[in-house]
Specification:
- By secondary structure, this protein is mainly β.
- The radius of gyration is 25 Å and the shape is globular.
- It contains 1 helix and 27 strands.
- Helix content is about 5%, strand content about 40%.
- The protein has a 5-stranded mixed sheet with strand order 20-27-26-23-24, with no helix packed on it.
- Strand 16 and strand 17 form a beta hairpin.
- It has 3 domains: about 140 residues, no CATH class; about 100 residues, Sandwich (Immunoglobulin-like); about 100 residues, Sandwich (Immunoglobulin-like), CATH 2.60.40.
- The chain starts with 14 loop residues before the first helix and ends with a strand.
């Protein structure tokens, strides 16, 4: 199998250059990359039906220092397999196990339209992640790199049912499309009732909605459906203690169906935490980005003095994020760079010291919200403060 890799390439040397590198430059031994692993398994969502669109998620992938290649394959299998459920707790790195008798149907797409030839079979998502690591930079500017790949498999869905008649679809009808994810509200305690909103949708009216509640492992080991939980409301049970709750909402009209999955709640316990109130930054997938929802600043700052900023961080759905890093910096000399982590209220209190800064007008500060020190796509907001000397 060939994997297209973007990023640093292994250096190429002639024999003469290699001899010089070893004898004179002390060529570093190429470093072997750590094999990628999954802290949240690949997963799929959708109806096991011919013609339905199955949505895939690559899961949470750990790559050090970075993932330089990611390949998605949809496989059609003769039998069921729950590779995602076989992940050892805390097991990094992890190679899943494919279901028996699988053939590759599509490569390179996170969505898969179930084919007529899949009827009676099972669908599985296969993810190949590639990591790289390099030795020390030589004095001639070259580098030697080695690559390592890891594989993860979702649990299968199936067996695939036959196609649904579409004779009732009207001309020009548009399949539903999700605009905003469903949200879960309620107290996360046994015997309490949770409610799932339908989210926001486009598509030809009228739209009908159906629901399936999921019980997610607290270690992010998968989200199997809860038997019989198919209404818009769900009563929490003792079995849910220590787990997270999510819900799939299916929107249907005369043109077809589409679905969306809510963000998992916090862990169900006896504390009475409210669903959807906060997410831990470690639960975010690699592709999810943070949002700086609000920055509360003083009316002015003295020089010298200290400016106290309160930075509220959320995900793109407005859910508060716990454990994110809020960093504040400035291009002006004499202004310290400071950072703090967000608490359970999604707010970080950052104290920036200002030492004898002479500026005309206002002091400009840059606020960044990061998932980790290696976050290459932080949320960024610029603010300005009047300075009093």
């Amino acid at each position: 199998m060939q994997i297209a890799i973007a990023g640093p390439r292994p250096g190429k040397l002639s024999v003469a250059a290699l001899v010089v590198g070893v004898a004179v430059l002390g060529l570093a031994e190429p470093a072997q990359a750590e094999r990628p692993g999954w802290y949240a398994n690949p997963s799929t969502a959708g109806h096991p039906q011919v013609g339905a669109t199955v949505l895939g998620s690559p899961g949470g992938i750990k790559c050090e220092p970075a993932c330089v290649g990611l390949v998605h394959e949809w496989t059609s299998c003769t039998g069921p397999g729950a590779a995602g459920a076989d992940r050892p707790t805390g097991g990094l790195p992890f190679d899943g196990r494919p279901a028996p008798g699988c053939v590759v149907r599509v490569r390179g797409d996170l969505n898969y339209v179930v084919r007529p030839e899949d009827e009676g079979r099972h669908i599985q998502l296969h993810v190949i992640a590639t990591n790289y690591d390099c030795g020390n930079v030589r004095t001639d500017g070259g580098q030697e790199c080695r690559y390592s790949s890891g594989q993860g498999y979702s649990a299968t869905i199936g067996p695939i049912a036959g196609s649904v008649a579409t004779s009732g679809s009207g001309p020009g009808a548009v399949v539903p499309r999700n605009l905003a994810l469903p949200l879960i509200s309620g107290l996360l305690r046994p015997a309490q009732t949770l409610s799932a909103s339908s989210g926001s949708w486009s598509g030809t009216e009228p739209l009908g909605f159906s629901y399936q509640w999921l019980r997610c492992s607290s270690s992010l080991g998968g989200c199997p459906p809860i038997p019989g939980a198919t209404a818009a409301r769900y009563k929490v049970t003792e079995r849910d203690a220590g787990a997270r709750i999510s819900a799939i909402v299916v929107a249907s009209n005369q043109a077809g169906s589409m679905w969306a999955t809510s963000t998992p709640t916090d862990v169900v316990g006896a504390t009475g935490a409210r669903a959807g109130s906060v997410r831990d930054v470690r639960e975010l997938s690699p592709v999810e980005r943070l949002v700086i929802a609000r920055v509360v600043v003083p009316r002015s700052v003295r020089s010298p003095g200290t400016a106290v900023l309160r930075v509220r961080v959320t995900d793109r759905h407005g859910v508060l994020i716990r454990g994110a890093t809020a960093a504040v910096s400035s291009e002006f000399a004499g202004v310290s760079t400071a950072s703090a982590r967000t608490g359970a209220n999604g707010i970080a209190v950052v104290r920036v010291k200002v030492r004898l800064v002479r500026v005309v007008g206002k002091l400009v500060l840059t606020v960044r919200a990061l998932k980790s020190p290696r976050d290459r796509s932080p949320a960024v907001k610029r603010i300005s403060l009047p300075v009093q000397t």
